[in-house]
Write a structure and sequence with these properties.
CATH class of the largest domain in chain A: Alpha Beta
Structural class of chain A: alpha/beta
Shape of chain A: globular
Order of helices and strands of chain A: EHEHEHHEHEHHEHHEHEHEHE
Number of domains of chain A: 2
Number of helices of chain A: 12
Number of strands of chain A: 10
CATH topology of the largest domain in chain A: Rossmann fold
Largest sheet of chain A: 6 strands, parallel
Largest interface: A-B, 26 and 26 residues
Strand content of chain A: 15-25%
Distance between the termini of chain A: 32 Å
Strand order of the largest sheet of chain A: 4-3-1-2-9-10
Oligomer: homodimer
């Protein structure tokens, strides 16, 4: 038993979709969330910059007494995971391995689609891991740079011409290849489940890395016997790098419930990168 | 005569639309450009964060021996200008005053439209200055948070359903009020001159703050007798906070010509905010 909190970070608020799953799957775990809202988005930046920001995010979270860290950011998980893994004395869980496990289980025709940020797609991280466990898989990927700003502006509903157009343009070539599984490789994208699911059709399984990661974390905590006590009253703390004002409103869209917990502002530039 | 460079900064690359005008209007002036590409965009962030970043931008540029600074960022010019003006020992020119002067000259029916980032529109900076010189003006403004990402993804052409939809949604209420002048209050927007001009119609004058600012700078340098010598062979230096790779490609879209000059990466977190 270990009631210390789990740390979770993302470039901004998208990682809260993973937090939501963690809260459901692990209702007794304390969570410390860091959203780098003063520098969001990461997905169009260079590897050097993403690595630098990820190290500052890690340095901040490991300044607390925590038992594990979840990288709830598709961009950091794909671009910078190798630069942070094993270097902070705590287990670090990214979203790639859990999503790949699920996608490989789900696909029947071994044609897997993948969407993500420019940096994530360029990294080829998903391709490498999929091919390790399923060498005959065919992977069709495309970067979708407009989906994050569209989601952040609330353009998430069917019938909205802008999101429908963007989804169709990005996914048309992937759909044409006949994939039966699609990895939503950015933690903003689960908010587009409805639009993307409708466009791709019933025969295509959508894999949300954040959701799969929550089960991965549960297993890891159990294996190491560091789960929180049953009945432990979970506490949530949120840290952001831009103003705390307005956090609750945006956060409730990603969490699909009211944020309860403390929200504070932090300056990451004083943390080592 | 003063051959020292003029400093120009923006949150990212949008300010290069103003640099292009400066190069045309002041072909003998050396320019040092700073684009905070590692933290772009500023327009959705809080005032505190925008002021902090603007002060670091200023501290960096004033570490050179320069004779004036142009704030080629609509968000900083509207949100943080009062916090930096008069505090660095060099003249600082924002885009608001030049744009307001032009808009007030251009309007005949005294109905002026204004578009910009969320932070710019919330600041009411344009409204205040317009009403000082034209108290009977009617100003209709709206924040357009999706225009920057759309421009940055090259969605700038007529016939593109996404940019046409966004422009129509944002501008419909302003057009309905019968404005005869529209201020494009963000340095990304001049790339949308064609789409916006077509939607608003021939009777509406579009005011590009970056273009007006170049004339303002010319007058200021002449009045203070600090223009560069005629025949001085202007040199251009560019600094960015993300990788220099890919700068040239994106920059050429904003400058409408090849970037010639030196591009370097800088870390602004070491500069005082």
């Amino acid at each position: 038993m270990d009631n210390r909190p789990v740390g979770v970070f993302d470039s901004g608020l998208g990682g809260l979709t993973a937090v939501r799953q963690l809260m459901e799957v692990l209702p007794n775990e304390d969570i410390i969330y860091l959203g780098d809202t003063g520098r969001v988005p990461y997905g169009g930046r260079s590897k050097d910059t993403i690595v630098k920001y990820a190290k500052q995010d890690m340095a901040f979270l490991t300044s607390f007494d925590i038992k594990a860290i979840v990288v709830a950011c598709g961009t950091v998980s794909t671009v910078a995971f190798g630069e942070i893994e094993g270097k902070y004395g705590v287990p670090i869980i990214g979203v790639v391995a859990p999503a790949v496990k699920k996608a490989v289980e789900a696909t029947k025709n071994r044609k897997i689609g993948l969407i993500g940020t420019v940096a994530s797609i360029n990294s080829k991280a998903y391709e490498k891991l999929i091919l390790e466990s399923m060498p005959e898989a065919e992977i069709y990927s495309t970067a979708c740079p407009l989906l994050v700003p569209l989601v952040e502006n609330g353009r998430i509903n069917r019938g909205d011409i802008m999101i429908e157009t963007a989804v169709r343009e990005y996914l048309e070539p992937i759909k044409a290849m006949g994939v039966d599984t699609l990895i939503l490789g950015c933690t903003h994208y689960p908010l587009l489940n409805d639009v993307i699911g409708h466009y791709m059709g019933d025969g295509v399984s959508l894999v949300s890395p954040g959701a799969e990661t929550a089960y991965y974390v549960k297993r890891l905590l159990e294996e190491r016997d560091i789960s929180a006590e049953r009945g432990h009253n979970a506490k949530y703390r949120y840290y952001v790098t831009d103003s705390v004002d307005g956090f609750s409103g945006a956060a409730s869209m990603f969490l699909s419930k009211d944020v309860s917990g403390e929200v504070r502002k932090v300056d990451l530039s004083v943390y080592e990168d």
